[in-house]
Amino acid sequence: MTDHALPDALAEIRDEFLALDEPERLQLLLEFANELPEIPARYADHPELTERVAECQSPVFIVLEVDADRRVAMHATAPAEAPTTRGFASILAQGLTGLTANEALAVPDDFPQTLGLTRVVSPLRISGMTGMLLRAKRQIRSRLV
To answer: Which of 21, 37, 61, 105 could form a disulfide with 50 if both were Cys (CB 3.0 to 4.6 A apart)?
Structure first.
């Protein structure tokens, strides 16, 4: 992975995970699950404006905004009964929000694999986070046209 392409917020999150032993990494992921920001009412009241992340077993929905200054905001919903998936959604929402579109698009596609979680959560869950990231990037690109 090219570390220079990883924005500071995501690099800090990654480093926080890698500084822990594997069981503690899972606990940190669960802490992130509790920190998933609420989705704005304009989307909560209109779920058809969000996109289902088909790669996730749990019902995860995301929507990305790009403002006039090309700053990204990611919003996501994930059920409380799917804490690892919710944790991944929270990491991406917190890590991508505030970046420029170009910074967000430059996040390496393998970012989820760099968190040191591949032995503590199922490959399906890692695939779901990768799917979230790729769909987020696709939404950003579509809003730049």
So the answer is: 61
